[in-house]
Amino acid sequence: MSLFSDIYSEHERATLNLLQYAERASWDSSQVCHPGTRADILEDIMQFLTAPADNISTLRIALLTGVVGCGKTVIAHTVAKKCAENKCPMLGSSFFFSSEFDERRRPDRLFSTISRDICDLDSTFRMAICEAIDRERALASAPMRRQFDGLILKPAQEASPHRTHPLTIVIDALDEGCNEDLLRLLETSVALVPNKFRFFITTRTEATIIQRLRNLDHISLKEINIRANINCQDVKVFVNHALNVIAHNRRIANWLDDRLITRFNDHAEGLFLWASTVCDHVGVCPSPKEELDDILNNRELLDSRATEKMNKLYTNILSKCPWHNRHFARRYQSCLGAVVALKRPLSVSSIGKLLDENADVVLHQLSSLLIGALTPDQPVQIAHSSLRDYLTRCDRPGSYGDARFSISEVENSQHLALRCILTLNRELPKHRDAVAILVDNKREAGHIPRLEDGVITEHVWYACEYWANHIQDIKVASNELREALACFQEYCLLVWVAIGASRGTYFSIGKFYKWSKVLPFPILF
């Protein structure tokens, strides 16, 4: 029951009851951040939410994004709790989307729920809504844009002059409940809301959402970098606390030390969800000490009770990809397979050039599982090694996966071998003049000119470095590969060696030579 329900008139109560309300969509005090963690992020968010209206100018939304499992929802619960316990900023409403609950997997009840919550706090806002519904009863069940105008925008404009403190609206997991209508409202109409009403929103790094919201004047975007030192330190603090609780509850003496915590933290790779899942699992095992040791020595021993949560999450995300789009479906295996099989990370643009594919089509759609997928020149990495394990095993029984999600690291490494050779055959002849001096007998002894940075592009340099590594995974050379290798030998071999020398790198042909000797039909230079 509302704390302010006693001030409602019977007419107001009857009118507001026409608005649909999403039950159990509000914040939960048991889901907040562990004390001492996420201090920097929380400080940034609270500074925005508490700033004087003149200081934030056009800003209306603080948008927090990050890969799956990085802790966005816990931060949202913490922000909601802080606002609920303070008058500045005051918590107007919180709505936590969730694909597990019918009322919370769609935005149908978002604005009606928010407006009813704010009515408990602001009499001017409440009067405006009641008058609007009196004028037009259909507003209570109107389409989203009309509800936003009538239940949020106009009441906020009337209430704003009378507010002394900012009011916060928290929306978590936008990616789980967003549709085109809501996204368009966030793009445009929210900018018209008075700046005493502020939104804190979290979402995974979904390509559609982030690309459309990232460069707008009324939105401040912050991305959680799970590999940042401060994030890894926060995970370490959480892990240390969680394991100490287990040790205390299970009466385990002389278990924890800095080395164990560091090993655990290294395995967590900055991902809070993985760390908490393992701690939950270890905490209920008959022998927590031995179980954790097994996990840290061999993660495959993490049994289904712990991996099930991660696997179901990955399955849920991948199942929502646009498999009906023939371009996505055709490129999924090669593009995500390249991310899995590459010897070192490359940017989206370089992956596309190496594969001769439009990698954006796939990798942007998978941005909630990858680091760097939305930035063309940032190396793309799998967010956590548990995803790599899932992708390479999800076609097995009991994995909660789907064969269409499965990635073969070996097969994609074989494909990369061919793509590297084809890339070198196409690109290296362009640099023959740049390294010609290296085979000039009149060159000064011991002097090797260095090519300027950027002359050899990222994907070409990768092909130079790793074609011989990838080729080790090929057991039977196709005719296409044989022809490409013959072309490489005739036109590109010396240029390849010279380019390596110009970058201070020695390229050895030894791996290739040993590989070719064991083929059914040897290929020898």
Defining key terms:
Rossmann fold, 5-stranded parallel β-sheet, alpha/beta, 4 domains, 525 residues
Structure explained in plain terms:
- The structure is a single chain.
- The chain has 525 residues and is an alpha/beta fold.
- The protein folds into four domains: 5-223, P-loop containing nucleotide triphosphate hydrolases (Rossmann fold); 229-302, no CATH class; 322-407; 414-517, no CATH class.
- Helices cover 50% and strands 7% of the residues.
- The protein has 22 helices and seven strands.
- The strands form two sheets. The protein has a five-stranded parallel sheet, sandwiched between helices. A two-stranded antiparallel sheet has the order 6-7.
- Strand 3, helix 8 (180-187) and strand 4 (197-204) form a beta-alpha-beta unit.
- It is elongated.
Radius of gyration: 28 Å
CATH superfamily of the largest domain: P-loop containing nucleotide triphosphate hydrolases
Kindly report how far apart the N and C termini lie: 82 Å
Number of strands: 7
What percent of residues are in strands? 5-15%
For the report, how would you describe the main beta sheet? 5 strands, parallel
Question: If strands are numbered along the chain, what order do they take across the biggest sheet?
Answer: 2-3-4-1-5
CATH level 1 class label of the largest domain: Alpha Beta
Topology pattern, helix = H, strand = E:
HHHEHEHHHEHEHEHHHHHHHHEEHHHHH
- Helical residues, percent: 40-55%
Query: Can you tell me the number of structural domains?
Result: 4
**CATH architecture field of the largest domain:** 3-Layer(aba) Sandwich
Structural class: alpha/beta
